[in-house]
């Protein structure tokens, strides 16, 4: 037997093992606590300790986390791989982002970054396609893929919604996308929308000769999501969309398994992420949420607009770099830039993020004075201009849809 208390969870000179999950936190100790006091409590509560000193069998201490590299408001915690259940993301998060978020020992604490050990990372499937959706499901090789979300986000009838999709597809957009809060409301039933939209999709494909697809929002309770996924597969869709934060990672893991049976890619919308990541001193960073999304196997995830859109963003280029980097052979994830974009912001967006992204535009297409099809053309023209190395204003001289968009919105970000 060994006695354990908070101080036993601190070893400032600790060298992590290859099998450890290593997590970086920033924290502000609670009143009367030193950094070391707070760090020991964090490592204890997030692994296998409690507030009371315990006598435990020796084996138990092998599962304890260790706080080290304790600096001014920063600490790294290493968790032994055996603390975790393979392939169980909720269990992992209940350790590393669980009770510690509300401990009195810290006034605030933020999980900033994780280094995932191979055995744990590869106990998850990772994405089926990642950036390969650009060539395996779409015809978007060598350019950013494009998507559009109809606006108003809810309220269009099924027919109106499908018509907006058709107009956008023939205007040049690759992907129609449901908004995060459009699912199966009375005015636009899921089943009807899916059937009518794929009929329109087939027409648009025939007319343009390009592959087109639809990011269908299946968000609901998990069993309903699986039924909706089956319907999308039956109708010949290539993607399902899931609001991953509001549905939860357990549901994402289940959807991932079923999506694989049909070869469907998963588009992850991150609505509610800012409840976790907006404050820079508390919560869970978008970087970590994106890591979790990659492990659990989404093919796309929204990662912001590098400050060019309407929403607060945290280090979009750094997150995108992580999503495309090596992770023990797991597929990459195609990042989605979305939220307040329009043709005038395409060039700085692609400068900041490169072309291996999805450019997702709602109001910046449907708010075009000449309608959705013209708005879609304007977006494509802005991308063509960028690829030709010509600035948008010059390209607009003989591209009237782009000229109208630039006249309306200029090149600034909306608020
Ligand atoms: O509907 C939109 C964008 O519409 P619009 O183009 O009209 O602003 C999305 O929900 C945002 O992408 C969410 O933000 P993020 O992608 O940052 O999660
Ligand atoms: Mg939306």
Automatic annotation (TrEMBL):
Cofactor(s) named in the record: Mg(2+)
Site (Transition state stabilizer): 310
Keyword Isomerase: no
Active site, UniProt feature: 151 (proton acceptor), 269 (proton acceptor)
Alphabetized Gene3D superfamilies for the sequence: Ribulose bisphosphate carboxylase, large subunit, C-terminal domain, RuBisCO large subunit, N-terminal domain
The reaction(s) this protein catalyses: D-ribulose 1,5-bisphosphate + O2 = 2-phosphoglycolate + (2R)-3-phosphoglycerate + 2 H(+); 2 (2R)-3-phosphoglycerate + 2 H(+) = D-ribulose 1,5-bisphosphate + CO2 + H2O
Every Ribulose bisphosphate carboxylase large subunit ferrodoxin-like N-terminal domain range: 8-119
GO MF annotations, alphabetized: magnesium ion binding; oxidoreductase activity; ribulose-bisphosphate carboxylase activity
Annotated Mg(2+) binding sites: 177, 179-180
Co-factor: note: Binds 1 Mg(2+) ion per subunit.
EC number(s) stated in the UniProt entry for this protein: 4.1.1.39
Ribulose bisphosphate carboxylase large subunit C-terminal domain location: 134-409
Binding site for substrate: 153, 270, 302, 338-340, 360-363
SUPFAM superfamilies (UniProt xref): RuBisCo, C-terminal domain (SSF51649), RuBisCO, large subunit, small (N-terminal) domain (SSF54966)
Positions bearing N6-carboxylysine: 177
Pfam families: RuBisCO_large, RuBisCO_large_N
Keywords per UniProt: Carbon dioxide fixation, Lyase, Magnesium, Metal-binding, Oxidoreductase
Database matches in InterPro entries: RuBisCO, RuBisCO_III, RuBisCO_lsu_C, RuBisCO_lsu_C_sf, RuBisCO_lsu_fd_N, RuBisCO_lsu_N_sf
GO BP, sorted A to Z: AMP catabolic process; carbon fixation
NCBIfam families per record: PRK04208.1 (NF003252), rubisco_III (TIGR03326)
Family: Belongs to the RuBisCO large chain family. Type III subfamily.
Extra facts: Because the Archaea possessing a type III RuBisCO are all anaerobic, it is most likely that only the carboxylase activity of RuBisCO, and not the competitive oxygenase activity (by which RuBP reacts with O(2) to form one molecule of 3-phosphoglycerate and one molecule of 2-phosphoglycolate), is biologically relevant in these strains.
Function, as annotated: Catalyzes the addition of molecular CO(2) and H(2)O to ribulose 1,5-bisphosphate (RuBP), generating two molecules of 3-phosphoglycerate (3-PGA). Functions in an archaeal AMP degradation pathway, together with AMP phosphorylase and R15P isomerase.
Assembly information from the UniProt record: Homodimer or homodecamer. In contrast to form I RuBisCO, the form III RuBisCO is composed solely of large subunits.
Protein name stated in the entry: Ribulose bisphosphate carboxylase
Organism: Halobacterium jilantaiense
């Amino acid at each position: 037997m060994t006695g354990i208390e908070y101080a036993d969870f601190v070893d400032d000179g600790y060298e992590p093992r290859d099998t450890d999950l290593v997590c970086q936190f920033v924290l502000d100790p609670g009143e009367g606590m030193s950094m070391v006091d707070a760090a020991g409590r964090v490592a204890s509560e997030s692994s296998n300790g409690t507030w009371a000193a315990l006598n435990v069998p020796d084996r138990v201490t092998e599962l304890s986390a260790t706080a080290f590299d304790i600096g001014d408001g920063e600490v790294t915690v290493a968790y032994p791989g055996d603390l975790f259940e393979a392939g169980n993301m909720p269990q992992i998060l209940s350790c590393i982002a669980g009770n510690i978020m509300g401990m009195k020992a810290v006034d605030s604490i933020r999980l900033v970054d994780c280094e995932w050990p191979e055995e744990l990372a590869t106990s998850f499937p990772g994405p089926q396609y990642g950036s390969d959706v650009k060539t395996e499901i779409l015809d978007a090789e060598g350019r950013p893929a494009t998507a559009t979300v109809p606006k108003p986000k809810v309220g269009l009838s099924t027919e109106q919604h499908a018509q907006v999709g058709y107009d956008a597809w023939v205007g040049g957009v690759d992907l129609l996308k449901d908004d995060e809060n459009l699912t199966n409301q009375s005015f636009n039933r899921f089943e009807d929308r899916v059937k009518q939209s794929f009929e329109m999709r087939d027409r648009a494909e025939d007319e343009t000769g390009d592959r087109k697809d639809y990011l269908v929002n299946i968000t609901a309770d998990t069993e309903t999501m699986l039924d909706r996924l089956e319907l999308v597969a039956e109708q010949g869709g290539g993607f399902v969309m899931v609001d991953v934060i509001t549905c939860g990672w357990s549901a994402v893991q289940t959807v991932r398994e079923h999506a694989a049976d049909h070869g469907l890619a998963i588009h992850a919308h991150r609505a509610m992420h800012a409840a976790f990541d907006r404050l820079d001193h508390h919560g869970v960073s978008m970087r970590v949420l994106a890591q979790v999304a990659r492990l659990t196997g989404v093919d796309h995830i929204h990662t912001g607009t590098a400050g060019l859109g309407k929403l607060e963003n945290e280090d979009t280029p750094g997150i995108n770099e992580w999503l495309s980097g090596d992770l023990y052979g797991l597929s990459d994830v195609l990042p989605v830039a979305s939220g307040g974009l329009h043709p005038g912001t395409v060039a700085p967006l692609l400068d900041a993020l490169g072309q291996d992204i999805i450019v997702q535009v709602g109001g910046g297409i449907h708010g075009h004075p000449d309608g959705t099809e013209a708005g879609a053309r304007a977006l494509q023209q802005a991308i063509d201009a960028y690829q030709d190395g010509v600035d948008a204003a010059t390209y607009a001289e003989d591209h009237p849809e782009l000229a109208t968009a630039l006249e309306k919105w200029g090149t600034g970000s909306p608020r």
